[in-house]
C-alpha cells in the first residue's frame, strides 16, 4: 500500500478498511469545526459511512485515478489528503485535505500537500494540480498560497454547504511552474 514518510512524526498512508472506526472518530470529534467548510459531514453518521468512503478511495487507487491517504501524526490518524479523481485526458487533478483542529497551524497539511503534489507532477506526470477552498477559509487558502499556486479566480456559489451555496477560490499550479513548493 501507498506510504510516504514526511518526518519522524508525520507520515501519509493509504486508508484501509480497518481504519474506518478511527476515521469516523476523527470526523465526529471535529464535526463542529469541519462543518464550517466541508459538505459531507452530515452524511458521515456511523463508522460504516467512513468504511464506504475508504472503500471508494481504495477503488479509486486500484483504478489508477489517484489516492486518498490518512495524515498520520505520531502514529495517530489526524486528517486526510488526496486526489479528487484524476482526469487523465487532461492530466489534471484537484486535491483536497482536512485536519483535526488540534493539529492545525503546525505545517502538517502544507507538508502533506507538498508530498502529494510532488507525486502528482514527478511520478504521475500530471500537467496541473488544482486546490479549491472557501474564500473565507483563511487557513485552507494559505496552503496553496504558501506552495506557490496561482489564484485563478473564484467560482460563484459552486458548492452547497448545509442549505446555502458558497463560493470556491480556485488555485492552480502547472507542472512547469512547480519548484517543490519552497515558498515559506
TrEMBL record:
Keywords: Acyltransferase, Transferase
SUPFAM superfamilies xrefs: Acyl-CoA N-acyltransferases (Nat) (SSF55729)
Short name of any one Pfam family annotated for the protein: Acetyltransf_3
Alphabetized InterPro entries for the sequence: Acyl_CoA_acyltransferase (IPR016181), GNAT_dom (IPR000182), Ribosomal_N-acetyltransferase (IPR051908)
EC identifiers of the protein: 2.3.-.-
Domain N-acetyltransferase, residue spans: 24-167
GO molecular function: acyltransferase activity
Origin: domain of life: Bacteria
Entry keyword annotation includes Transferase: yes
PANTHER family attached to this UniProt entry: RIBOSOMAL N-ACETYLTRANSFERASE YDAF-RELATED, RIBOSOMAL-PROTEIN-SERINE ACETYLTRANSFERASE
Protein name as catalogued: GNAT family N-acetyltransferase
Amino acid at each position: 500500500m501507498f506510504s510516504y514518510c514526511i518526518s519522524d512524526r508525520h507520515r501519509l498512508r493509504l486508508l484501509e478498511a480497518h481504519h474506518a472506526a478511527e476515521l469516523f472518530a476523527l470526523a465526529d470529534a471535529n464535526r463542529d469545526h469541519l462543518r464550517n467548510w466541508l459538505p459531507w459531514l452530515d452524511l458521515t453518521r456511523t463508522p460504516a459511512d467512513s468504511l464506504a468512503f475508504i472503500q471508494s478511495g481504495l477503488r479509486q487507487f486500484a483504478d489508477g485515478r489517484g489516492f486518498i491517504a490518512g495524515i498520520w501524526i505520531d502514529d495517530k490518524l489526524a486528517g486526510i489528503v488526496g486526489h479528487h479523481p484524476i482526469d487523465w485526458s487532461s492530466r489534471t487533478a484537484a486535491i483536497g485535505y482536512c485536519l483535526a483542529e488540534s493539529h492545525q497551524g503546525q505545517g502538517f497539511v502544507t507538508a502533506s500537500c507538498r508530498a502529494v503534489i510532488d507525486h502528482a507532477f514527478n511520478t504521475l506526470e500530471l500537467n496541473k494540480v488544482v486546490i479549491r477552498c472557501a474564500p473565507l477559509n483563511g487557513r485552507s487558502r494559505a496552503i496553496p498560497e504558501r506552495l506557490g499556486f496561482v489564484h485563478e479566480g473564484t467560482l460563484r456559489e459552486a458548492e452547497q454547504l448545509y442549505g446555502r451555496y458558497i463560493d470556491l477560490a480556485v488555485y492552480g499550479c502547472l507542472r512547469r511552474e512547480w519548484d517543490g513548493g519552497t515558498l515559506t
